Q: What sequence folds into this?
């Protein structure tokens, strides 16, 4: 089977759940919970991919300082180790409506073109240590490609699961 040479658009999922920059934190969390997705693409009204938002972005906005500063502090022998700061968040109820996706969007993301090959997609996934890539055509989001999508395609071709 020559899946490596297939174009991404043959394997990707087209049914993508997206959010807008104006989506509130409350709406975002409810959507992530409902769809069981920890990463969602952010698009404008024309469908142009602006970035991604994930649970790490949500956590990072509430941390008193960045993860890198935390790691440096932990290496200092004279400083007591801090408890799990992922759970030590400074929260108030108003944040659910005051914080929007635009506050936590990650604009430094990796995407792939729908005409690229599965081989290139896997190379990018390994290189950037990700298991899912937004798929674009002329800057517009047209789908998502995950490692699971690739495996499902292979399993279907080998008649391991139904087509």
A:
């Amino acid at each position: 089977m020559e899946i490596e040479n297939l174009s991404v658009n043959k394997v990707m999922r087209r049914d993508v759940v997206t959010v807008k920059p104006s989506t509130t934190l409350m709406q975002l969390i409810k959507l992530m919970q409902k769809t069981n997705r920890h990463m969602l693409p952010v698009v404008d009204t024309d469908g142009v991919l602006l970035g991604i938002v994930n649970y790490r972005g949500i956590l990072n906005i509430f941390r008193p300082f960045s993860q890198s500063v935390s790691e440096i502090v932990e290496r200092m022998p004279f400083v007591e180790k801090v408890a799990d700061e992922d759970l030590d968040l400074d929260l108030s109820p108003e944040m659910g409506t005051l914080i929007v996706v635009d506050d936590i969007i990650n604009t430094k993301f990796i995407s792939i073109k729908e005409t690229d090959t599965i081989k290139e997609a896997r190379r990018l996934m390994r290189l950037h240590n990700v298991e899912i890539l937004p798929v674009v055509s002329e800057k517009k989001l047209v789908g998502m490609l995950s490692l699971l999508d690739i495996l499902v395609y292979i399993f279907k071709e080998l008649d391991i699961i139904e087509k």
About this structure: The longest strand covers residues 140-146. Residues 3-157 form a domain with the CBS-domain fold (CATH 3.10.580.10). The beta strands are 39-43, 49-54, 112-113, 132-137, 140-146.
